[in-house]
Amino acid sequence: MKLIQVYAPTSSRPDEEVEQLYEEVQRQLTTDCHYHIVMGDFNAKIGIKSDEQERATGKFGSGERNERGDLLIEWATANNLKIMNTVYKKKISRRWTWQSPDGCTRNEIDLHHDKQTQHLHGCESA
User: What's this model's pTM, rounded to 2 decimal places?
Assistant: First the structure.
């Protein structure tokens, strides 16, 4: 088993830095290993599934998607990964993983990805 921990650049950084990160994770995914989990702070809002053809997300996303969320979903789809936070139903209060300093904004940006959905159940970020 290989766990790949990610801390993606924030939205204030250029997209090229995010693309470099995804390329590095891609290289790690190509190593010979039976089971991979990619997890961490992706600084991307994936929101609610926008298209039933979308394979990388489940039906329990939350909030609105941003451009980095589009990029992450593209990358996850290309790597046959499922964003596990969106697969299992949770209370709204248990979905967010980041809160603004003033407490007014909450987002789900810490995400788990897996190719084999049967291995993770009730996926939450701490």
Answer: 0.78
